[in-house]
Amino acid sequence: MENNNKNNLRLQVFMAHSGIASRRRCEFLISEGYVKINSRVVTEMGVRVKPDDIVTYKGQAVRLVNKKLYIALNKPPLYLCSNSDPQGRSLAIDLIKNDFSERLYNVGRLDYLSTGLIFFTNDGNFTKIVAHPSSGIEKEYVVETKQAIDEQILLDFMKGVTIEGEKYKLDSYIYKTKYKVRLILLEGKNREIRRFFQSRNLKIRKLHRVRIGKVQLDNIPSGSYRYLTEKEVAWFFKKKKRRESKYVSSSD
């Protein structure tokens, strides 16, 4: 177990505790040369941060997080889930950043046209749990199409399909009408639903995420947010522990 004393933290752990990203992602960022300690680029793993060290990521100072925040936003369409965009498009983070002095990051993504529930946090460990497929966190979407959806298409999706070398798989679905379905994914790769429907010549009219784990979008207005409750946050960490325990037990 890592000591929370700054003097004892490895660089990638220090960055994760600062809310930059998950530990694994931080290791990648370090290896790619995005991180400096005292103006010197560090690319090797295991370097420890000393109390008087100045750590920067892409030129911005990185500091340990004293207060961890967990935000649920109802993302409107035409907002990008990124902390910057060279094309100057509106960012989802812009909807909340003026309310917080802490640096927040989106957990996973919703594409530019899609709407609905997305989390923001400064807790790298929480990001890893929610976003990583191994955690088994369900993401539920409502999809409306311009053409009728043959249910066999969804059954094929559940079996698993490969599109341009990438495998996609649906966990379950609820067939609402011939133009509207609820889909549940455990992994949720980039633009997975859109790519699958496009491969079946189905045009999506609306793609709206309504649930992540036990957190429902409910009555959050478009463009607004709320804090996750302590119970909701704890549920994700408990979910991760239960899966780890189950994996260890099955390996014995």
Please give a quick description of this structure.
This protein has 252 residues and is of the alpha+beta class.
Verbal overview:
Helices cover 25% and strands 26% of the residues. By secondary structure, the protein is an alpha+beta fold. Strands 5, 6, 7, 8, 11, 12, 13, 14 and 15 form a 9-stranded mixed beta sheet that branches. Mean pLDDT is 89; it is low at 1-6.
Helix-strand string: HHEEEEEEEHEHEEEEHEEEH
**Estimated radius of gyration:** 20 Å
Low-pLDDT sequence parts: 1-6
Q: For the terminal residues, how far apart are their CA atoms?
A: 23 Å
* Structural class by helix and strand composition: alpha+beta
Query: Rough shape?
Result: elongated
Question: Sheet with the most strands?
Answer: 9 strands, mixed
Count of DSSP H/I helices: 6
Residue-averaged pLDDT, rounded? 89
Number of strands: 15
Helix content: 25-40%
Strand residues, percent: 25-35%
Please describe the structure with a list of short key phrases separated by commas or semicolons.
single chain, 252 residues, alpha+beta, 9-stranded mixed sheet, 4-stranded antiparallel sheet
SSE order and pairing:
Elements: H1 11-17, H2 23-31, E1 35-37, E2 40-41, E3 55-57, E4 60-61, E5 70-75, E6 105-107, E7 115-121, H3 124-131, E8 139-145, H4 151-159, E9 161-163, E10 166-168, E11 172-177, E12 180-185, H5 192-199, E13 204-212, E14 215-216, E15 225-227, H6 230-251
Parallel strand pairs: 7-13
Antiparallel strand pairs: 1-2, 1-3, 3-4, 5-7, 5-15, 6-7, 8-12, 8-13, 9-10, 11-12, 13-14
Helix pairs in contact: 1-2
